[in-house]
Write a structure and sequence with these properties.
It is built from 16 helices and eight strands. By secondary structure, it is an alpha/beta fold. The protein has two domains: 245 residues, HUPs (Rossmann fold), CATH 3.40.50.620; 124 residues, DNA Cyclobutane Dipyrimidine Photolyase, subunit A, domain 3. The structure holds flavin-adenine dinucleotide.
C-alpha cells in the first residue's frame, strides 16, 4: 500500500482492528451468525458481548455476501428475529434502489432543510460514550447502527454541524461506507430525509450501554443529560425523480448480455466476491481491478478501507491471475473488452458507457427495481416483492 498507493489515503497504513477482507473472512462471519435474539439485541452498544448485530456489513457492502444469500441464511430461527433481520436487509436494498434512482441528486434531494450549519464541530471526546464510538469508528471502521445514530445526531442536531460533513467523516472510515446507506442514514437520523430528527441523550446510553456512564469523567456534569432541542425542519420541494417510473439504467440487465468474447474480468468495489457473476462465467481470463486515482486522491479515505480491498484481492489472487492498476478506470479499461457485473452506482454508468464491454452480467438484487416511489422506506416496500 505504501509503495503503490501512496497519496490515495489519509492516515498510516493499518488495517481495521476488527475486520479483515477476503471471501474466507466473509464466509466465516456468515457461518458464525445466528439470528436468534437479534430483534432484542441488535441495538445494544456496550459491552460488545451484548451486541446482537451481525457485523456482516463490510462484506455485504462489497458484494462478498449478497443480500439474497444472507436473506436465505437466516431461514431457521425465531420468527420475530428472522423478520427483524430481513427488514434490515430490506433497508439496505432500499438504500441501493434510492441511490440507483437519484445518484448524485441524493445530496440535494432531501425532504427537509435544517437551516445554516454551525462551523464544522468535533465530537466531545471527554465523554465516554462519544469517545468509545469515535474510537471504534477510527480503529475498526465499523459501528452498530445505534452508535451511528448517536454520533450523527450529536454532530448535526446538538452541535449544529451539516449532515454532509458528518457523512463524509463516516465515509472516510467505515468499511461498509457507501453513498447509499451512509447518506440515507445521515438524512434519516437528522430529519433531512425523514419526518423527524432523532435526539441523542444520556437516556439512550444508560439503556444501550449500561454501566458506561459510571466510567465517564463527565458523569457528574453530563453535557447530554437533557434532550437536544428539536431540529428546525423546513419542508422542501421533493425531487420529482423520487416518484417516477423506472429508468432502465437503474436496474441493469435482467440476464447476461454477451457482446464479444471478453479478455479480462473487471471487478468493481461493489462486487468483489468469489461468486461475482462475471468472474464465475469467465474462469480462464485475468481479473483486473483499478484503484481510481483521481477519485481516491480526492476522497482521502482512511487506509483501512483500502487495506480491506487489497486483502480481498490478494486472497482472490491465490486462485486467479489478478492485475491491479492505479489510474483512470476508463483509460485502463479502454484497452480491453471486459466482462463485468452491473453496479447500481453513478460511477459505474459513467465509466462503462465509454467502454466496449465483452459481457455485462446482472446485479444480484434482493428485489429487482420496478419503478414507483423511493420517497420513503414504507412507500418503496409496496413497490417490491419481499
Ligand atoms: C448515520 C448512519 C450511517 C450509516 N452508514 C452506513 C453505511 O455506510 N453502510 C451501510 O451498509 N450501512 C450504514 N448504516 C446502516 C446500519 O447502521 C449498518 O448497516 C449496520 O449498523 C451494519 O452493521 P451490521 O452488519 O451488524 O447490521 P445488522 O443489524 O446485523 O443488519 C444486517 C444488514 O442489514 C443492513 N442494514 C442494517 N441496518 C440498516 C440500515 N439502517 N440501513 C441500511 N442497511 C441496513 C446491512 O447490510 C447490515 O449488514 C448507517 C446508519 C446510520 C444511522
Amino acid at each position: 500500500m505504501a509503495r503503490h498507493l501512496g497519496g490515495l489515503f489519509s492516515d498510516e497504513v493499518k488495517g481495521s482492528e476488527a475486520f479483515s477482507g477476503g471471501q474466507g473472512a466473509a464466509d466465516a462471519r456468515l457461518a458464525g451468525f445466528n439470528v436468534g435474539g437479534y430483534a432484542s439485541t441488535r441495538s445494544e452498544v456496550w459491552p460488545a458481548p451484548r451486541r446482537g448485530a451481525s457485523a456482516l456489513s463490510p462484506y455485504i457492502r462489497h458484494g462478498l455476501l449478497t443480500l439474497p444469500q444472507v436473506w436465505s441464511h437466516v431461514s431457521e430461527g425465531p420468527a420475530q428475529d428472522i423478520k427483524r433481520f430481513r427488514d434490515e436487509l430490506a433497508w439496505q436494498e432500499f438504500a441501493r434502489h434510492w441511490y440507483a434512482r437519484l445518484g448524485i441528486d441524493t445530496r440535494t434531494g432531501v425532504r427537509h432543510d435544517l437551516g445554516p450549519p454551525a462551523a464544522q464541530p468535533a465530537w466531545d471526546r471527554t465523554m465516554a460514550c462519544l469517545e468509545m464510538c469515535a474510537e471504534e469508528l477510527e480503529d475498526d471502521g465499523w459501528l452498530v447502527n445505534q452508535a451511528r445514530m448517536w454520533l450523527a445526531s450529536h454532530y448535526a442536531i446538538r452541535l449544529g454541524g451539516h449532515w454532509r460533513e458528518g457523512e463524509d467523516e463516516f465515509f472516510r472510515h467505515l468499511l461498509d461506507g457507501s453513498r447509499a446507506a451512509n447518506r440515507l442514514g445521515w438524512q434519516w437520523t437528522t430529519g433531512a430525509g425523514s419526518s423527524k430528527s432523532y435526539g441523542f441523550s444520556r437516556w439512550q446510553v444508560e439503556k444501550r450501554a449500561p454501566g458506561l456512564c459510571g466510567q465517564c469523567d463527565r458523569s457528574g456534569d453530563c453535557p447530554i443529560e437533557e434532550w437536544p432541542e428539536e431540529a428546525d425542519l423546513v419542508k422542501v420541494e421533493p425531487n420529482s425523480k423520487l416518484r417516477r417510473s423506472i429508468n432502465p439504467s437503474e436496474a441493469g440487465p435482467a440476464s447476461a448480455v454477451k457482446n464479444n468474447p471478453p479478455d479480462v474480468v473487471w471487478l468493481t468495489a461493489e462486487s468483489l466476491g468469489a461468486n461475482d457473476p462475471a468472474l464465475v462465467a469467465n474462469p480462464g481470463i485475468p481479473v483486473l481491478f483499478v484503484f481510481d486515482e483521481p477519485l481516491l486522491e480526492r476522497l482521502q479515505l482512511s487506509a483501512k478501507r483500502l487495506v480491506f480491498l487489497v486483502e480481498t484481492l490478494a486472497e482472490l489472487a491465490e486462485n486467479r491471475v489478478v492485475v491491479l492498476h492505479r489510474g483512470r478506470p476508463a483509460e485502463v479499461l479502454a484497452r480491453h473488452r471486459p466482462a463485468v457485473t452491473f453496479a447500481p452506482v453513478p460511477g459505474f454508468s459513467r465509466i462503462s458507457s465509454s467502454l466496449e464491454l465483452g459481457e455485462l452480467h446482472p446485479y444480484p438484487w434482493l428485489a429487482r427495481p420496478r419503478g414507483g416511489s423511493v420517497s420513503s422506506f414504507s412507500a418503496w416496500r409496496k413497490t417490491v416483492d419481499l
